[in-house]
Write a structure and sequence with these properties.
Blueprint lengths: L16 H12 L8 H7 L4 H25 L6 H9 L1 H33 L5 H18 L1 H33 L7 H4 L9 H11 L20 H29 L4 H6 L7 H9 L2 H35 L18 H19 L4 H30 L8 H21 L2 H33 L1
């Protein structure tokens, strides 16, 4: 049984497979490991490429659950729509409510990254000005239309892939000529500086690495705007995760071989971890390559936010269409075919959060601490939706137990494990946001019950 979308939704079908992959990769960012490379190298005892290999497999459970649900509930709002249909109105609202922390605030983090990078390149312009400018430019593209934004996004993504290709070629040339600074298998087995291989250390690093993948799920938010059916969305989700995993493993493997310091040295000096990737390029290849990667990251971060903002707008639109948020957010612009009011609200929230964070020394830490909990909680409800739809309600006939129970349960276990590894502050903020969502559910349920009683009288 496939849930059909009402014809009055108004979203315009204009996206192809390539456009979906572009949005997913933009949101993730092809060189996402650059900023956390040093941290993961230290935590895993040097087995950083293995960390991303395991993280890709771990996130594959979530990607598979998205692929299962988007085929039967091809609606904007993704996890909100899935949980609502499979688990009920209350769980559906909570899924969407928790996903807001991810979809609305992750763009703020990306905008802040862009502002920081641009301020470093042009110090005369304040960091918050660069941050605000990035919000304005990408919001304009999203308001223009989903197809236009996808075209510009493709150009930016192509630039990022080219820069990544330059790094890979330069790294291979240097490694061929000068050899590796660590053992050739060390990115998979550890560099030995902190003892032998440690499975616990690798799994601890995986709990951080999976956060690099947040964003591929945004593809599912465009289910009502794709041509050719929801099966194309499912393929795009799986393809995007697989491609991102291959890129992440390749770049971290090469960077580890070029790394001039050991994992033990990075662990002993946390101050070096944030720049470890750039330091490896400067020491082993050339300073210009580090600068090129930095510029690519600055531009790429802004357009990662573009994809995130677009997904946030679709989530608000979907929840408003079902009466869970103010109805005005469900309006679709006739000319552009996009929910401009929902996009505008998402942009304002993102702008305020990003500019506020850009003017504080600890702003980035505060933002990052809350977005991850929202996404991971939504993932747990996504996996529960697969079990509820296929195994409990049996909406598609007899379930396939390994596909509809085993894999979703494993995916939920991964998400719960990562939540357990999160900081105490992030857990508190997530719990408070969840509590507010539960209050909203109770109030809305009370209003609907009251309306039902008065109508019966």
């Amino acid at each position: 049984m496939t849930v059909t979308v009402r014809a009055t939704a108004g979203l315009r079908r204009s996206l192809g497979f390539r456009d979906l992959v572009v949005y997913g990769l933009l949101f993730i960012a092809p060189m996402a490991p650059v900023g956390v490379f040093g941290t993961l190298d230290a935590k895993s005892h040097g087995a950083v490429a293995l960390v991303y290999l395991v993280a890709t497999v771990a996130m594959a459970f979530t990607a598979f659950s998205y692929a299962q649900m988007v085929r039967v509930v091809p609606q904007a709002g993704s996890v909100f729509a899935y949980a609502r249909k499979a688990l009920g109105e209350g769980p559906g609202f909570i899924a969407g409510w928790m996903a807001m922390l991810d979809y609305v605030l992750i763009p703020a983090v990306a905008y802040l990254f862009s502002g920081i990078a641009m301020h470093a390149l042009v110090p005369a312009v304040s960091q918050w000005v660069w941050t605000a400018l990035a919000v304005v430019v990408t919001t304009g593209l999203n308001m223009w239309g989903v197809r236009a934004a996808a075209r510009v996004g493709f150009a930016v993504l192509a630039m990022e892939i080219v820069v990544l290709g330059v790094f890979v070629v330069a790294a291979v040339v240097v490694l061929t000529q000068d050899g590796a600074r660590r053992g050739w298998l060390s990115p998979l087995t550890g560099d030995g500086s902190m003892g032998g291989f440690s499975l616990a250390a690798v799994l601890g690093a995986v709990s951080v690495a999976v956060l690099s993948y947040l964003g591929f799920d945004a593809i599912a938010s465009f289910a009502e705007e794709v041509t050719g059916g929801s099966a194309k969305v499912a393929r795009a989700v799986l393809f995007c995760l697989g491609l991102a995993g291959a890129l992440f493993v390749t770049q971290t493997y090469l960077a580890a071989l070029l790394q001039p310091v050991s994992a033990a040295e990075l662990a002993a000096d946390p101050g070096k971890q944030g720049t470890a990737f750039y330091d490896a390029l400067d020491a082993s290849i050339a300073t210009w390559l580090g600068d090129l990667v930095a510029v690519s990251k600055a531009v790429g971060a802004a357009f990662a936010a573009l994809a995130g903002q677009a997904a946030a707008g679709r989530l608000l639109f979907a929840m408003a269409r079902e009466g869970r948020l103010p109805r005005v957010l469900a309006k679709v612009d006739a000319a552009s075919g996009v929910p401009r009011i929902a996009l505008g609200v998402a942009a304002v929230v993102t702008l305020v959060a990003a500019v506020w964070a850009s003017r504080r020394d600890d702003g980035l830490d505060h933002l990052v601490s809350v977005v991850d909990i929202g996404a991971l909680t939504a993932f747990v409800l996504l996996h529960a939706s697969v079990v509820g739809w296929f195994a409990v309600r049996r909406m598609e006939g007899p379930p396939v137990w390994w596909r509809h129970v085993l894999l979703p349960v494993l995916g939920a276990a991964v998400a719960v494990a990562v939540i357990a590894e999160a900081s105490g502050a992030a857990q508190v903020v997530g719990a408070l946001w969840l509590a507010v969502g539960l209050v909203v559910v109770a109030v809305q349920r009370g209003r609907r019950t009251g309306m039902g009683v008065s109508g019966g009288g």
